[in-house]
Design brief:
332 residues; mainly alpha; globular
């Protein structure tokens, strides 16, 4: 692999990493009693031009979206490619597609609380494309996912199938991007993410009492653990805790048990994100090449996720302790 072409980007990232939010700033944000204090704290960070008034916090999705786009623009200029932005932000396109497609057919969808402005595709353009079925500017992956999801919904009227079908399209696209990049580190990252999603699907399906057939339709391909292996476990009613103990995901036993005991996936989701963050942190140990780029960009996504948790908590007057409980680990 020609890592030399990323030398300039690597040098810029070393500077950008010093501007990531640290635990001290996060603690100050948690302790802020008023939204005005939050704005004042952010004024000392890279977010100062995106959150200048209290109103900006109420519109945090749009402003976090602008922030991420500007940072990805720096990476694009440094690497001379948009593939890194595509790799990390297509998840927002699929998130928006799921929301907009459901809103097209259902009446109880609060789009304002769901839509993200961090994707590759402008939200208004995506809405127009879905409403009018004009898909010419969308990727083949998204078009195929949209066609399949819409056809399935017209047949079954089951909105959950929209999520399942579009998730499959998303991970297929993400996995293919990792193959195009051609780095084992990125392929490993995506395959790991697919495995953890399938473990999550196993738990949800088990708790819902789904049939083997319905469960198998929900599984993703291309992980390290073959989809057929999950199906065999499910068919034989094998405890997922027993099986993951002998995989590289043994550290998830407590998160799975917590989900089974509490009926809440919150701790599992937090563990999922922290596990992936630890995975990409290895990029910090490498000075050159693609790993520092991936590590930095993942940290940005993680950072905005933490800010989103804090903003939602502050706007809804959630106690500090409960907000802090949901926060993900920090990259720095």
């Amino acid at each position: 692999m020609n890592d030399a072409k990323y030398i300039y980007a690597n040098s810029r990232i070393k500077v950008l990493e010093t501007r990531l939010l640290n635990s001290v700033i996060i603690e100050r944000l948690l302790n802020a009693d008023r939204l005005e204090e939050v704005i004042k704290i952010l004024n000392d960070t890279e977010y100062k031009n995106y959150f200048t008034t209290v109103e900006d916090i109420f519109n945090f999705e749009e402003n976090l979206g602008r922030f991420l786009k500007d940072k990805f623009k720096i990476i694009e200029e440094s690497t001379k490619t948009k593939i890194f932005e595509e790799f990390f932000t297509i998840m927002y396109d699929y998130q928006n597609t799921k929301a907009l497609l459901k809103a097209k057919y259902l009446n109880n969808i609060d789009l304002k609380s769901i839509l993200s402005y961090s994707g590759n595709i402008d939200v208004n353009q995506l809405k127009k494309a879905i409403d009018k079925r004009e898909y010419s500017n969308l990727t083949t992956y998204l078009i195929n996912g949209l066609d399949a999801a819409e056809a399935n919904f017209n047949l079954t009227r089951d909105p959950q199938q929209i999520d399942i079908i579009l998730d499959k399209a998303y991970f297929k696209q993400k996995y293919d991007i990792s193959l195009d990049l051609g780095y084992d580190f990125i392929i490993d990252m995506v395959k790991t993410e697919i495995d953890l999603n399938n473990i999550r699907t196993y738990i949800r399906s088990y708790k819902l009492g789904l049939t083997e057939g319905d469960f198998s339709k929900n599984l993703l391909d291309d992980g390290y653990i073959d989809a057929n292996t999950f199906i065999e476990w499910y068919r034989d009613s094998i405890d997922i805790l027993e099986k993951i103990e002998f995989t590289k995901y043994s550290s998830f036993k407590d998160a799975v048990q917590n989900w089974l005991n509490t009926n809440s996936p919150s701790y599992f989701e937090k563990k999922f994100d922290n596990y992936m963050l630890d995975f990409v942190k290895s990029g910090k140990m490498t000075n050159f090449g693609i790993m520092p780029i991936i590590g930095y960009l993942y940290s940005l996504i993680n950072e905005t996720k933490n800010l989103r948790i804090i903003f939602v908590g502050k706007l809804n007057e959630v106690p500090k302790e409960l907000i802090e409980e949901r926060l993900r680990d920090m990259y720095v």
